[in-house]
Design goal:
The protein has 181 residues and is of the alpha+beta class. 18% of the residues lie in helices and 45% in strands. The chain has three helices and ten strands. A hairpin with a 2-residue loop joins strand 6 and strand 7. The N terminus is likely disordered.
Length: 181
């Protein structure tokens, strides 16, 4: 069975991102091995409700989010049970299908790009769409190694250049922390 991934429901705000000047960027880590990411505010652990079908495939899940001043960030680490086939591109496509299925979204475009993060194969996704009359942006990175999946998803109003800059900074900061031998 191949993994098409995750019920992903993202709620984006369109408020001003002017508070970015007051933010203190710090590194945070999640998963095992740890994926390190630079964020403008601390993340909060959150519970992501999985479908019954998905819950049967998942051994471990950690989910964190940041939602502040026009930027939404969700980071997840999932470890799947043996026998579940993992695939970063299918995870990204599944996440995009869930975003696209949200009510009120139009003009949806998406691009996928393969890349490497700390030597691990990854897929980056960039999407644009309208939520009502507001042009929105979505960026994500999906990394798979064996039964493990790390994902970082970001959403923002494309008219908010500071939120867009923060999103790009966050994506550039993603890397794995080398394990200590």
């Amino acid at each position: 069975m191949t993994l098409n991934l995750l019920i992903l429901v993202l709620v984006f705000t369109t408020s001003s991102f002017s508070s970015i000047q007051n933010w203190t960027w710090k590194r945070y880590a999640f998963g095992s091995p740890s994926l390190s990411i630079e964020l403008p505010t601390p993340s909060e652990k959150t519970n992501l409700k999985l479908s019954e079908d998905m819950s049967a495939k998942v051994k471990t899940i950690e989910t964190y989010q940041v939602s502040s001043s026009g930027l939404f960030v969700m980071m997840s680490f999932l470890e799947y049970k043996e026998g579940v086939v993992t695939d970063a591109k299918k995870a990204a496509q599944g996440a995009m299908a869930n975003v696209r299925a949200q009510a009120g979204l139009t003009d949806f475009t998406v691009e996928y790009k393969e890349l490497s993060i700390s030597g691990k194969r990854a897929v980056q996704v960039k999407a644009r769409y309208r939520k009502g009359t507001t042009p929105m942006g979505f960026s994500g990175v999906y990394i798979v190694e064996g039964q493990k999946l790390w994902q970082v998803n970001l959403g923002y109003a494309t008219s908010d250049l500071k939120a867009q800059e923060a999103s790009e900074r966050i994506l550039r900061s993603i890397r794995f922390i080398p394990s200590k031998s």
